[in-house]
Amino acid sequence: MTWIILIVSAILLIFLLMAEKKENFKGRLIFKPLLSVLFVIVAGLGPWPMPTYAAWVLAGLVLSWFGDFFLIFQSDKMFLSGLISFLLGHVCYALGFFLHGQWGLLSAAGLAGMLVLGAVIFNWLRPHLGQMTGPVIGYILIISAMVGGALALFSAPQAATAGRWLVLCGAQLFYASDIFVARDRFVKPGFDNRLIGLPLYYAAQFLFAFSVGMI
Description:
Blueprint: H1 2-21, H2 25-45, H3 51-71, H4 76-99, H5 105-125, H6 133-154, H7 161-187, H8 191-211
């Protein structure tokens, strides 16, 4: 079943990238929600060895589905709705990770490092943000906390090793994908951002989804 989902996901991702290349709104509207619902299905129907962790991650995945849907549309209002959806999704991820993780030197240092990186990224984006400055600052803080939570979970000896690696890699890929989202929206729009960012994003979400059955 896992391989079937991954193969279908890869096919849908190819179709989505083709739609993005052609700026095909109808294609985005069809393929993006279909692809995103698959990571929700993976988490929702898989085993839940740690139910509270699974519930937080599933909530984050559902909110991400809404974020993906909102970002199909080009208006500032829909972009802000998508940003808020992803921000809330990252809150759910961060809570799931921190509540089942172990705060220590690794997670503290990692969080500090992510905040420094976030400041660098914000300084790069700042001339282009305008009225979006506040929401973007909030988003950078929350996604940095999410990565810090992934490091806390990685440090937790009670969590299965495979699950911890899935979460840590997923968090890093998610952060990287959002850099391309920001570049596309605020700095230099272009298909190259989506060509790199979308595979990173979906890889991250599927890693989170599969971690539900392995933590």
